[in-house]
Amino acid sequence: MVSSAPSLPDTCLLCHECDLLVDLGRLIEGRRAECPRCGCVLSYRRRNANVRILVFSCSALICLGASTVFDFIQLSAAGIDRDLTLPQTMSVLFALHEWALAAFMGVVVIGLPLAFLAALGLLAFSLEAGRAGAYSFVLLRFVTFLRVWNMAEIFFLGILVAMVKIAGMADVNLGASFWFYALFNLFLILSLVHVDQYQLGLGIRRLLAEQEQAA
Ligand SMILES: [Zn+2]
Questions:
Q1: Residues 69 and 148 in one domain
Q2: How far is the CA of 22 from the centre of ligand 1 (A)?
Q3: Separation of 206 CA from ligand 1 center, angstroms?
Q4: What is the pTM of this model?
Q5: How confident is the model over 115-133, as pLDDT tens digits?
Q6: What is the SS3 assignment for 41?
Q7: Separation of CA 174 and ligand 1 centre (Å)
Q8: Whose CA is closest to 129, among 50, 29, 197, 214?
């Protein structure tokens, strides 16, 4: 339904693709809303979305932490063995005076996913616990902003491509951290799949209204 009223209800949303203003109403669980003009999916209210986000984001954080502890990759060439952990890859880049690359790697590979998952997990936890405040919208904006900067899976694909090339020059063994980082990427993607900005915002506004009525 297209609305042109000056005062719009909370359930109105601009289509990401064609800018049509659509009133989504109250979606029931398991249903998705599509733009009537271009067919773009505007919102998907997944079952137990907040619980799933909480579980996936916590699992991703645990795997990310574990991926920094153990050996990430083991290289053997010309009788020389070298084990590298994920933090060591950054320290090696620093030692090679590749400061920008090392800083970029630290921020993109560990820093941004860590901040994104912590904020997302905190938001999902507070919504599931029935609590909301001005901080909830700050967390939602933070999550929405960081979501587009997520490049962890691109880094992971880059590692796979690099290993295929290195395999011809050296023996490559994958350490436990590699598999933890693979699992981290899986849980990160599952977390991202369940993030729906409209549904999260609606949940915050609903809780705020309930808290206002109860006060
Ligand atoms: Zn549209």
A1: yes
A2: 9
A3: 26
A4: 0.84
A5: 999 999 999 999 999 999 9
A6: strand
A7: 45
A8: 50
